[in-house]
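Re-run with default settings, no changes from the original entry. Doing this only to confirm the output is reproducible before filing.
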Amino acid sequence: MANAHLSTPTEYLIVGRLQRETIIPIHGNPRINQLGGNLPYTASGLALWGGKAGLVSRVNPDYPLEWLKPLEIMGFDTDGIIKTEEPFDARFFVAYSPPQNASYENPLSHFAERQIPFPDELFNYEPDLRGYCSKTDYLPYTFRVTDMPRPYLEANAAHICPIDFVSHKILPSVIRGGLIQTLSMRATDCYMDPAFWEDIRNLISELSMFMLSETQALKLFQGRSVDLWEIAKFLAGYGPEYVIINTKDGATQVFDRVENKRFIVPAWPSTIADPTGALNAFDGGFLFNYRKVYDIVHATVCGNISASFAVEGSGPEYILDTMPALKEARLYALSQQVIHL
């Protein structure tokens, strides 16, 4: 852990964030001060299908590294988890109310409203709701080139989770400097803004796949387009072979630049308990299955299946309790519902 050793890398590499997660879900018990962040959700989405990966993230000096033990037991390599010397708040809070309304502020009021004792772990918590991210400044959790264990660059496929603009500017070139052939990245909210319009081309030019939400797409193209297919085709022109847009209804729209094709995979009709991490679980399931058979439609279906399990419970470990027969049944059923345009 944290560069204790450098073992033989697995086929996959995931770079993202680790956080201390407190969630009040739509259904079920609160999840208080537990393993969270987009990195473990992506890892779980990949592990659902049998994948393992090298994990890269920066954590604050107080982050409980023992929380990573379950990931290590599953075969994930944590040599890329770096403890920083600079403290920063790794806490994350969200409270949901039906149907999927999310609130990231005033945790005390949400616990009081539900008559749940307020956890000490949220004392003095202030959410990071900044809509702006710097084009030049390094945050404590911003990726540094020295963070990457050299053996990880011998993997075949990599995914970059939402981090910050500087990390996303650095990482594609670092990763492409190794043997990695397939590189996907999910957009970070703060730079999906017209203020970053001129920066997007260089940000995504080295990607194989660029993942973004419908909300992010419409915000970036504000005043330019509201047509998601037009947006996807435009972004694909910057370099990615595939642009993948996850829509508000849970469906996934994919534009294939090489074949000039497009298709939609509907959402699986899950009963949603906790939407946290669903898109990250999609990314893990997608990457593993794309790399396995190089079938973009199959990979997208598998991504939606990973997301469907993620929303039915709370926390990244919930996904891993899925019965294989149920996963295969959903895979078969959803594969019949793909819409080719």
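Residues 278-293 form the longest helix (16 residues). Confidence is low (pLDDT under 50) at residues 1-7.
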